[in-house]
Amino acid sequence: MPQFDAKKQTVTLNDGNVMPVYGLGTYSLTGSTVKEAVSSALKQGYRLIDTAYMYHNEKEIGEAIRESGLPREEIFLTTKIYPSQFNDPESAIEAALDELDIDYIDMMLLHHPGDDDVKAYQAMEKYQKAGKIKSIGLSNYYIDELKAFLPQVETMPALVQNEIHPYYQDSQATTYIQSLGIVVEAWYPLGGRGYQEELLSDPVLEKIAEKYDKSVAQIILRWEQQRQIITIPGSSNPEHQAENQAIFDFQLTEEEMQEINQLNRDEKHDWY
Question: Does domain 3-194+227-240 have CATH number 3.30.300.30?
Answer without folding.
Answer: no
